[in-house]
Amino acid sequence: MSSILDNKAIVGRWFTEFWGNPWNAKIIDELAAPDMLLQYSLHAPRKGRDDVRAFMTGFRATFPDLGFTGAADLIAEGDYVVGRWVGGGTNTGAAFSDFLAGSLPAATGRKMHFTGATVLKVVNGRIAEEIGLDDGVTALTQLGLIRRS
User: Fold this and answer.
1) Which helix (H) or strand (E) holds 88?
2) With a threshold of 0.85, does the pTM exceed it?
């Protein structure tokens, strides 16, 4: 079992290299468990390295400047690490059909900037789960996929 400090270091690298900009696609094979679960309210759950890689490749093709950074210190207990973050990007690339609320046409020029919190489970030095709650209403409103009344 990894120590809390080891787990925080693993999650810190994941946030920087998976969610940061530029991203390092190789980090998936290095730090994700083979059957990793990636789940956020904006998207359908992703399971396994290949599915996680396909998701992020498509997300970054749509938002080439996509990037997220930590908004507070990581908190850890046992196998779990919690992080708050802020980030977003500009739709200057390909169309994107992975949002549960609808598809985004290519190169709209719309920007999304939103916040969230994520709980990650680290088992044997690998990220087994990343489950987050994001401010999807803000992101989808900024992208024109939903309207506030």
Assistant:
1) strand 80-90
2) yes
